[in-house]
Amino acid sequence: MRIVQLIPGTGSFYCGSCLRDNALGHALRRLGHEVRLVPLYLPFVLEEHQPEEQAPVHLGGINMYLQHKSALANWLPAWLRRTLDAPGLLRWVARRSNMTGAAELGELTISTLRGLEGRQAEEVRRLVEALRAAPPPDCFLLSNAMLCGLVGSLAAGFRRPILCTLQGEAPFLDALPAAHREEAWGILRERVREIDRFIAVSRYCGDLMIDRLDLPRERVHVVLNGIDLADFAPRFDRQEDEPPTIGYLARLCRDKGLATLVEAFILLRKRAEFAGLRLRAAGVMLRGDERFVESLRARLREAGELDGVEFHPNVDRAAKIDLLRRLDVFSVPATYGESFGLFVLEALACGVPVVQPRHGAFPELLDAVGGGVLCEPDDPASLAEAIASLLRDRPRARALGEAGRERVLADFGVDRMAREVEQVCMMVASRASEPSARPLPV
After folding, report:
1. What CATH number is associated with residue 272?
2. How are beta strands 278-283 and 309-313 bridged, if at all?
3. Would 239 be classed as within a structural domain?
4. What range does the domain containing 363 cover?
5. In angstroms, what is the C-alpha Rg of the chain?
6. Full strand arrangement of the beta sheet holding 329-330
7. What is the mean pLDDT of residues 122-127?
8. What predicted TM-score, i.e. pTM, was given to this entire model?
9. Cα–Cα distance measured from residue 161 to residue 440, given in angstroms and rounded to the nearest whole number
10. How much of the chain is helix, strand and coil, in % rounded to 5?
11. Are residues 123 and 48 in the same domain?
């Protein structure tokens, strides 16, 4: 099969959805499919160098922004538009601005969802023209439903099935300014009717989007995420006198629950039995996150516990795995309903038991892999007690970590995810080729 994956990039930081989508594309290639990974808005940032890191960017963030601000931008000469879409320039701008923050993107999001009816219609047309320069695919796979503004143009230009992953749309849209939030949901609700099938990364995410977008349940397939398991392994040289360590690996921001974890850590350190406890927090830190991290440092300093905490911003894959292998317990107590949580799989792949809040996809995920316990959401005391229960009972914690690792290795590799996505793509593509198949939306 020929598959075109349309994937928004970040330009300057690692993103779980981007890493998942790119890993999926490469796994589909290993299955024998011809997969084209197309970065949108900003270049990809990948953990290991791959050709797609320098691939041409379509719907480039600078051009999209300029066209949103003024119709005159549509008349820029072609050489200047290409210059503004250069991956190097887009990376430079992404590092110095907040081009992916929902709170600042209300009007631009509305316009993008409208597709040819929005202010960036010319960019959509140029994307379709670029895609038509290659052999037509058997199907398109959108990274998320926020790309629904492209669907009408793709369907009209190619008459091929369009599939869409469901992952993370609700938190983004719900973070939009109130004046734009409901309008965005309304446009999305209309536009997704043109999509042939959906692939939800969890049952939780699928059910949520079925409800909020009025999707027919039979058009939503659940394919749980998988990860590239290379290099993930437990640590076997731990010394008995090493202090116990809690770990966190996600964006260093409020929404991921880092403040909740810091408060739980302070509660634990006040107990004599955990006086030597350590906390290592790693992950993406954008310019907008720096003030938040400094506020956590101030809180820890005020509590007299700053000496027990390390912050590791913007770690690469090797540093991430090294950090995970040195932990006793892992937690990312997100404040919102996560669609999945790849970091849970990564911690368990290193044999580290996890503590996660009882909401979003976490109950479903821990039910599938074991390897951890649940606590009450946004509750530092509940989180602290759950962590303490594992630190006090090392044999239980070790057994949970080992059991979780076994399940992740057996069932949550990227190749299993690719095979299940392959089945959905082939089913939809075969039905589209039947003479009696329903016409694709135009």
Report:
1. 3.40.50.2000
2. parallel
3. no
4. 245-412
5. 22
6. 309-313, 278-283, 245-249, 329-330, 354-357, 372-375
7. 94
8. 0.92
9. 7
10. 55, 15, 35
11. yes
